[in-house]
Amino acid sequence: MLVPTVAVDTHPVVLAYNAFQVVGIAGSYFSESKNPMPYSKFAVSSKKNDDGTSTTKKMVPSRMGMLIIYVPATIVALAVQWFLLPLIKDSTPTVAGWLVFAHFVKRDLEVLCLHKYSGSTELDAARMIAFVYALTALMICFVSTPTTELASREVYSGVSLFVVGSLGNLYHHYLLAKLRSDSVRKYVAPKGGLFQFVAAPHYLFELIAWLGIAVASHQLTGYLNLLSMTMYLSARSQNQNNWNKNKFSEKEWPASRKNMVPFVY
């Protein structure tokens, strides 16, 4: 049985970032539950103000918005792993750092080659998420325990969890992409895989991948990131499930279907 172990980097910058993560964990679920991040089907081009007026949001095509979100973190992870760690810390790149890089490369490739988009993304939201992801990549790459100091079970467990999570996430993204033809971009009730049980199995597998990164990181920063992602994706899966229930008939989408974890949540 895997028993995760956690080390704590006591550098003041890292501790300050950990405090920032704790605040994010506390607020991410409630923030996302109340106001879903405006991308994908939750994108809105205008916002109603208290005085009754509307503010128009600057939007970009969804594919461009997703690249804005993921590419900076990809570049940051590669730069830290390949250049900055050997230069600044005189140390070798870490397993967790390469897993972070692989995660965002996968996301970039999915945006370019797999996903089929029809909507738009709020530009400011894309920039904000991009900053958070880039900062996450930077910190995990920098603070993760060197591979030579990890127990072999932590390396193998972390990599195995990441591979399982990434493949499961990719498979369910593939199922979603199959639902939409190149000419028709309407929403269809997802089916196949764990979509028979939950609204967002791709989120569940993404969290398994982040768990693998946390185990390989062997640092508090990685586990706090996992908790933050869990809160955020839990709320977003709930929003997704509610959207499906309103969009599709009971036959297409039963009211009993869970959000993210089969039979549980």
UniProtKB/TrEMBL annotation:
<dbReference type="InterPro" id="IPR039357">
    <property type="entry name" value="SRD5A/TECR"/>
</dbReference>
<protein>
    <submittedName>
        <fullName>3-oxo-5-alpha-steroid 4-dehydrogenase-domain containing protein</fullName>
    </submittedName>
</protein>
<keyword id="KW-0812">Transmembrane</keyword>
<keyword id="KW-1133">Transmembrane helix</keyword>
<dbReference type="GO" id="GO:0006629">
    <property type="term" value="P:lipid metabolic process"/>
</dbReference>
<dbReference type="Pfam" id="PF02544">
    <property type="entry name" value="Steroid_dh"/>
</dbReference>
<feature type="transmembrane region" description="Helical">
    <location>
        <begin position="125"/>
        <end position="143"/>
    </location>
</feature>
<feature type="transmembrane region" description="Helical">
    <location>
        <begin position="155"/>
        <end position="174"/>
    </location>
</feature>
<dbReference type="GO" id="GO:0016020">
    <property type="term" value="C:membrane"/>
</dbReference>
<dbReference type="GO" id="GO:0016627">
    <property type="term" value="F:oxidoreductase activity, acting on the CH-CH group of donors"/>
</dbReference>
<comment type="similarity">
    <text>Belongs to the steroid 5-alpha reductase family.</text>
</comment>
<dbReference type="InterPro" id="IPR001104">
    <property type="entry name" value="3-oxo-5_a-steroid_4-DH_C"/>
</dbReference>
<feature type="transmembrane region" description="Helical">
    <location>
        <begin position="194"/>
        <end position="216"/>
    </location>
</feature>
<feature type="domain" description="3-oxo-5-alpha-steroid 4-dehydrogenase C-terminal">
    <location>
        <begin position="150"/>
        <end position="265"/>
    </location>
</feature>
<feature type="transmembrane region" description="Helical">
    <location>
        <begin position="67"/>
        <end position="88"/>
    </location>
</feature>
<keyword id="KW-0472">Membrane</keyword>
